[in-house]
Each structure stands twice: as structure tokens, then as C-alpha cells.
Amino acid sequence: MIHEKRTALLPESQASLTTYIMENSPEMEPDRVRPAVIICPGGGYEMLSDREAEPIAIKMMSFGFQAFVLHYSIKPAVYPLALKELAAAVRLVRTNHEVWHVDPEKIIVAGFSAGGHLAANLGVSWQQPFLAEALQGANEEWRPNGLLLSYPVLSSGELGHQDSFRSLLADRYETEKAALSLETLVNEQTPPTFLWHTLEDGLVLAENSLLFAEQLRKFNIPYELHIFPRGGHGLSLGTPETANGNQHGIEASVVRWPELFADWVRWNI
Asked: Which strand (E) or helix (H) includes residue 36?
């Protein structure tokens, strides 16, 4: 059975969380708890892509994971509102782990494109005092146990996707973009990470994932990185199900990434 509902996360925002929950059955391990995947769709911090929302949640459920889609604040909202919303979403899932049959130590934050920046931002910043002050809680409440970063916007340097940072920071873009170049913020408390990108991505270059992975290695953070040889940006599942009206997004070479990710979760989280 799937329960789908929207829950307000913070009083100062319109963000919501859509839940895709499998109930336990007395016939099938009635006390089962599952990993949870909280999905942040992409859209350059200007919109939220449906192609990277419900289809991803349903795919995650097919692996036996509980799934959640965060509809976070976008332009004209600015940093750090979306980050606080994601932290609140992780706390909500962890707080309700018994009701939602979630393993509270297996909560993965997943992001696509600019949503990858949001997910990774929590991964490198969850322990920061400003979040504890803003959310009036303990940082461990919103600590992610893993990250899934799909063709993520990460760097604000010369190889970065500048439009995402302009939308995120507005008139603070020039003064604060360097501080949100996430490869520079990786630390020993960053959670294990699964990344994938395509070599042909001309919008968000694969160097974003490569630079982040290099820093994960520096801090001995476990990670798995896949650079697929073909396909442009925003592929989602790479199947006809998630292709847009122009059939962009169909790429056979990347369709195995969800299975690779599911195996990674089973063996590493």
C-alpha cells in the first residue's frame, strides 16, 4: 500500500514532502524497516522537474526503499532556505521512522542537477551551528547517512553551472558563490556518496562530480563514482518513461544506474 501526502516542513516556507510508503504485512516480515531515499529534483533552483520526482520515487520503491520527494523553495527564495527545508525533511523522516517503517540509520538524500547541489550541501554542512540555531534542534537529527548525486551541480568555479548559483543567491551571487562551491567544503563528517554523471553533459560538466570525488578520497569518505560515456544533461532514469516531449532523456547506457545505486545502498549504508 502507498500513502501519499504532503506535509508542511517550516512555517516560513511553502516546502512540502510527498511520501511514498510501503506498509508492512504480517505475511512478509511484519517488523521490516527499510532504507529511505529523500529526493530533491533538479531545475537550476528556478523550477522543480517532474521527471526527477515521482518516477525516481517509484523506482526507489521497486528496490524496497521508502521514498520521499521534497518540493523545496526555489527562486525568488534564496540560500539557505532550501537547505533548512531539506534538513527539516530528514528530521521528519527520522522522527517518524517507526510509523513509516524506516531504518533511522539508513536515510539517503538524493539530488539531481541543482537538487544535487542541495543534497550535497546538507552532506557537507549538516553539522554546522547555523542549522541547529535555525531548526532549534540537534544536528544529528538531520544528518544524512548517505548521498545520491545525479549529474550534480557542485562547483561554482570556472567549470560550474553559474545560472544555478545566480538563482540560489540572487544579488549575493558575486560575494557568496565561492562559499557554496561544495568540493571545497567536503570534510571528515561528509557521508558516503554515490555519484554518476555523463561525459557528454555539456550543461553541468562531469568535472563537478570528479572534483567532489577527489575531495571525498582526500578525507577517506567511501564513495562510488560512475562516468557514463554517452548522454547529455538531465537524463533522470534514461528511459522513455522519463523522456520529455522531444524525447530527450532516452539513453540506454545510463539506465543501469538505479540498480548500481541500490546495490551500493545494500552493501555500504
From this structure: strand 34-40
User: What does the alpha-carbon distance between residue 205 and residue 201 come to, in Å, rounded to a whole number?
Assistant: 6
CA dist 134 to 77, 131, 205, Å? 16, 5, 33
Taking alpha carbons only, the member of 121, 60, 52, 113 closest to residue 85 is 121
Contact predicate 119/167, CB 8 Å:
no
Number of helical (H) and strand (E) elements in the chain, helices listed first:
8, 9
CA distance 190 to 47: 27
Q: Is the dihedral of CA 175, 177, 178, 180 positive or negative?
A: positive
List, run by run, the mean pLDDT of 10-residue segments along the chain (269 residues): 68 91 90 97 98 97 97 97 98 96 98 98 98 97 98 95 97 97 98 98 97 98 98 96 87 97 96
Cα 120 from chain centre? 7
Distances (CA, A) of 200 to 93, 151, 168, 232: 36, 11, 25, 5
d(C-alpha 23, C-alpha 79), whole Å: 36
The single residue listed with the C-alpha cell 545502498 is: 265
Q: What is the Cα gyration radius of the chain?
A: 17
